[in-house]
Amino acid sequence: MRLSNKLKIFSAMVLMLVIVVSSSMVFAADPNTWTTKAPMATARYNHEAVVLNGQIYAIGGQTTGAATLKSVEQYDPATDKWITKAPMTYAKHAHQVVVINGKIYTIGGLGDVSGCMYSLEEYNPETDTWKTKASMSTARGHFGATVVNGKIYAMGGSSVKSMEEYDPANNIWVTKASMSVDRMLFKVAVVNGKIYAIGGYNSTGYLNSVEEYDPATDKWTPKAPMNIGRSAFEIAVLSGKIYVMAGANTRSTEVSESVEVYDPTTDTWTTKASMPTPIAGKAVTLNGKIYMVGAGTGRNIVEEYDPATDKWTYDAPLTTGRAYDQSVVANGKIYHIGGSITNSVEEYTPTNTGGSSEGGNENPPVITGNSAILELTMVNGVIKEYDLNAAELDSFLTWYDNSSEGSAPSYYIFNKKNNIKPFLSRKEYIAYSKIASFEVKEYAE
């Protein structure tokens, strides 16, 4: 991602530092549109999509006639081309995909062969090869998985409350402490190195329970429950807080538009502004905002949420509505991929600060400087500042993007410029898990 594009992510915050916007401002119509890109070779839904080294990978899923896929395709945004890659060993959907150290791992899932539910496969993009790795001890579908400190954690699934930890260095799964309840169709979030299992469904009904797992102690701790039990919902993590949106339960009208946010520091849930149009699509985060892509009965509505103002905004709609699709962020753009049943792909570039839920946005100024102050707010409240040039800032932003996906080192090294003899150099190591938020302040020209 080029520096100029990355700095746009922070333009709204920089704008707040230099001007005051009148509450009576009338917002212009959103000038942005979704652009149709090259389609995939295979129509797919219930698939997974990840970003690695700026490339998008669409993995598995289902296609016409509900046939399950083992195929994999790679999209290059720079050339607008899809390339068919080596297939997985197992055809699967309802699986999980994570990225560690430049490799993609597919875990468990449902398919035509029962063995896929135990399976772990590793993909090396440099050699375009899949390797079958050690299997889990428990079959899992519609489960949760995440990465902490370079290890994979797989938990839950249909009638399952157990958890396992995978170490890629030793190709070993280790059974860890189980959750207090079995859950499926739930969500997993990581904040400050802790894992949160949220909501879901089991034989007792829709769950509002929340549990926190500490890998250092191998213990689950019950946390404050959500206000509403829900499954198959969407989730986003911003500034150390967890946002949950929409989902399903027996009171569909109550849950389908609702939004709650969890603060791990206070162990509290707060109800936020409801989505203007219910029925959720797929949530992604960009520019410090949440985008719900593919909402509404036609599944083509795009809604943008600004945590700073607790307001939702309508953005340009998708050209093609679809369900059971995927959205990812790559190079500062949102890509909406596949769905029931289509191979189409659309691209969106947010360049706005948001407006009212009646629709419309205002474009912010573009930051064009070559130097800036990077201000980090740590989870303990300490604020650190670094005076960086364009290349240094670009390096940090690239590391931060990749670390959020688990594909970069867990810490970043800042070279201290005010080196004092007799040291050859002075370096400061900042852990990704210790950063609560950050802000870029551009120098005036």
Question: How would you sum up this structure, described in words?
Answer:
With 445 residues, this protein is mostly beta strands. It folds into two domains: 3-22 and 32-348, 6 Propeller (Neuraminidase); 371-442, no CATH class. It is 8% helix and 41% strand. The chain is built from four helices and 35 strands. Strands 1-30-29-28 form a four-stranded antiparallel beta sheet, with no helix packed on it. Mean pLDDT is 85; it is low at 1-30 and 353-368. Residues 1-28 form the signal peptide. It holds the Pfam family Kelch_KLHDC2_KLHL20_DRC7. InterPro entries: Kelch-typ_b-propeller (IPR015915), Kelch_1 (IPR006652). It comes from Ruminiclostridium cellulolyticum (strain ATCC 35319 / DSM 5812 / JCM 6584 / H10). This is Kelch repeat protein.
What is the level 1 CATH name of the largest domain?
Mainly Beta
Number of domains: 2
Shape: globular
Q: Helix fraction?
A: under 10%
Gyration radius, in Å: 22 Å
Instruction: Count the DSSP helices.
Output: 4
Instruction: Count every beta strand, where a strand is a DSSP E run of 2 or more residues.
Output: 35
Pfam families: Kelch_1, Kelch_KLHDC2_KLHL20_DRC7
Signal peptide: 1-28
Organism: Ruminiclostridium cellulolyticum (strain ATCC 35319 / DSM 5812 / JCM 6584 / H10)
Protein name: Kelch repeat protein
